[in-house]
Specification:
The structure is a homotrimer. By secondary structure, the first copy, chain A, is α/β, with parallel strands linked by helices. The first copy, chain A, contains 11 helices and 9 strands. The interface between A and C is medium-sized, with 33 and 33 residues.
Amino acid sequence: MKKIFENVQNNKPLIHHITNYVTVNDCANIQIACGGSPIMADCIDEMEDMSNICSGLVLNIGTLNHTQIDSMLLAGKNYSQRNKPIILDPVGCGATKLRTETTFKLIEELNLSVIRGNLSEIKTIYNKTGNTKGVDAADEDQINLETIDNVIKMAHNLATKLNVIIVITGQMDIISDGKDTYVVKNGHPSMANVSGTGCMLTSILGAYVASNPENATKACAVATAVMGIAGEKANSYVEKHNLGNASLRVGIINSVSTMTEEILLKGIKIEKF
Amino acid sequence: MKKIFENVQNNKPLIHHITNYVTVNDCANIQIACGGSPIMADCIDEMEDMSNICSGLVLNIGTLNHTQIDSMLLAGKNYSQRNKPIILDPVGCGATKLRTETTFKLIEELNLSVIRGNLSEIKTIYNKTGNTKGVDAADEDQINLETIDNVIKMAHNLATKLNVIIVITGQMDIISDGKDTYVVKNGHPSMANVSGTGCMLTSILGAYVASNPENATKACAVATAVMGIAGEKANSYVEKHNLGNASLRVGIINSVSTMTEEILLKGIKIEKF
Amino acid sequence: MKKIFENVQNNKPLIHHITNYVTVNDCANIQIACGGSPIMADCIDEMEDMSNICSGLVLNIGTLNHTQIDSMLLAGKNYSQRNKPIILDPVGCGATKLRTETTFKLIEELNLSVIRGNLSEIKTIYNKTGNTKGVDAADEDQINLETIDNVIKMAHNLATKLNVIIVITGQMDIISDGKDTYVVKNGHPSMANVSGTGCMLTSILGAYVASNPENATKACAVATAVMGIAGEKANSYVEKHNLGNASLRVGIINSVSTMTEEILLKGIKIEKF
């Protein structure tokens, strides 16, 4: 884990984002915070050049449109050809036909490394149908002690079927590549009160996977723990000082930027299956 | 007022935004802060699906373009058909022909529930011409003890004419549906130093109106007070700690997210006419 | 310097931005913080109207696309005709062909007042080729005691050739119009950990140049110092309270908004050549 963390800091990977305009600034600042360097570009004419200078690609469909879809597909092909990782965040998959169909198209046409979503989004991919409530998981789609075994099984099966790493985030986080499966129990429920904590983790995953190509699944688990520990620290700060969700947002990014190996190793709650 | 506040917390309405890319993150986080759930989508292919899953629509013309206008019109028709509220923020109406004409088109073609703007923007709608200074009210367009009677009359007449709730924000805030009129005296002048406090209030109005369909005008008045009280609290914090406008922005969202019935009922300065 | 600072506060210039969606909110809030008023608009139909009501134009190519390029060119022509200043931030010039070619096109077709970039971006313009690493300067492109003489020479030559003010930011900042050259030694290396500090300075330059037409080069130097001093103050605060890069972002904008003549005159580290 120490090595995985260090690789990001030493590598300082440049991560290309085609992402939504809601949480894009948070993605940029948390990318820097975790040790990477962000660049956002979605004009189709830049996709090939970007794939030459960047180490990985983050695709986030949070404010999707057709121009973006074209750029995502072209960028994805260029990164695939260069064997550079692509991370997909299927924001709101299941909420509208456009998002669901685009998710399937990206899965089909690109060589994705990681898909990160909440349980509703991942279930939509798994079942080819879903009931995502906007950008949040549906109320019945919770990861808890009752559901965890089924969620792990689904993650395992979907990862095997699609040959990607599946990262499902919620009260507990599941990471599986079809062989190794990790459960991460960091984080705090209040993180749901900040818009874009999922998007931010997806950005971090880009830096971690690009910097740890030989160890990508474990890197995803560590990245998820980094985000979770940051959420815990930020939540303590906010509660102590009686602040609110805007300070939680600031605190999460702060806590990623001040993360050390010591904090990570001491705070990480991870199990391998 | 207690009931209006509680309805938002219990309902947790999903509010669809077609909004500008400048203040969109603040709108998302303040939507969560006030008790709702935000989703931003502007691709025309998603408009119908969104109108099925969301409880209300916020239209904000702060960075307008033709693609957005088409989506606003289609979305608006779908929400109208479903009897779901539409809130319009005519940002910069009067500053450019595109914004002025689009505002009139949206008013004409859609069944709007609320229009919220500063005095210059609302005067432009009322007089069919205006001199908005960018996105701020013109210097001569101030709501004070001298002008208040005329502003109330205008709000009342415009609300009657257009059959919408008019919310005019400034040093004092006027809310009128042509029958009931409220004046809210919360807020602090320093709020003008944060980009997007108007946009943020418009987002909150979406949650309040969607959660209080039988009591929409009063809900607008309460929502306006929530924003104003948050501004007062944030301003006190910033002054006490000698901070600046970026902390004021954080503090406003924080204060909305920690708002309670007690804080609201104690702080609200409202008069009904 | 006192006069330059005061002119911005008194003038409160309305500055039109065509800018990227990553750091646009920071540009808006720092524009207010420094004394100006921001408006963001990129629809081609608004460009002429905007050029009538605004005092200056900021062009930032951080998330460039063809629609934006058309608007930049038309807006630029309108501002040029009205003798209003245009500030160009060639974000990522050298990283992709689209950005490099667009930069040259804007330089060729518009009457720019200022170009602000990091050393890699400005070298790309100077040498007609470059190796910008994403949106940051390449590792070899540092402004230090060894390189400063060459950088000053380049700034001087480029300013003369293009008849613009060149602002190069880095460990030290160089401002030159081909006659007068200033070196500003404010700022802190940690500012590189915040996405968009360059974009924010470009916004401030808009307000300073628009408010000081007779003294534009010195105004650029003072604006650069304002940003640097804000970075120093914010960094001290962040270090003292053991925070991170998200608080640094908030602190920089805060420190610009609480800047006074006294703080500026006491903190400024400027040399004229």
